[in-house]
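PROTOCOL LOG
Step 1. Enter all chains and additional molecules of the complex.
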Amino acid sequence: MAKLAIIGGTGITSLPGMQIDRKRAVHTPYGEPSGPVTYGQYCDITMMFLPRHGYGHNIPPHQINYRANLWCLEHLGVDTVLAFASVGSIHPDMQPGDLVIPHQLIDYTWGRSHTFFEQGQGDRAESVAHIDFTEPYCGRLRDSLLKAGDNTDLRIHKQGVYAATQGPRLETAAEIDRFERDGCDLVGMTGMPEASLARELNMCYATCAVVANAAAGRGTGEISMDEVESNMKIGLDNARVLLAALLPLV
Ligand code: HPA
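Step 2. Run joint prediction.
Step 3. Record the structure below.
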């Protein structure tokens, strides 16, 4: 049976409905994770939970210690990670409140500590490794998510190319045009290096993206935070329905 952890994104600093057993702080060779890991039951399934931005939602995307987060989950025996992430939509079919299970990504981030294979640091520093990343997300978990989605009437897009940006600012309209020319369908700030670090640790990792807004230049006027927040409320309710449908399948 998989040992599952949920990484919560914007708006998911806790999992309402999760029966909490305890929290465990882990110190890693890479520094501190975003917070202690919560152990508990959701829909009677045992799992762990870690909010990427911290329990107080105070860590911006470029300052998240992605290495510590993934290392700590692996250290606790996790082999399967479902990451929730808020995104802006580039593809016109992807509407605010929709869920997307991306199948590919392009990494536009820079300057983030993005690998465990670094000389002089951590316990994997001695070897040079080039992980295969042809398919950046775990097929097994994606299939389960899609099957779970079929058991609901949620609006779920079965694939999409995720553009990972540096943040914390939102993009310009021209940047979004460029991402679209590159083949991207959705844009977010936290998808990398989380996905590749999970792969370096041989974890099964997939993302459920929650569309918070139309990306820059794709909606009407500026992106308003009020609009983002109200869309996220709808999207997160949808994400919880999907999670409940998923858990019996993993
Ligand atoms: N861009 C980048 N990240 C995001 C967005 C966006 O428009 N919306 C939510 N996360």
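Step 4. Note key features.
The two ends are 7 Å apart (CA to CA).
Helices lie at 66-75, 139-150, 173-182, 194-200, 225-246.
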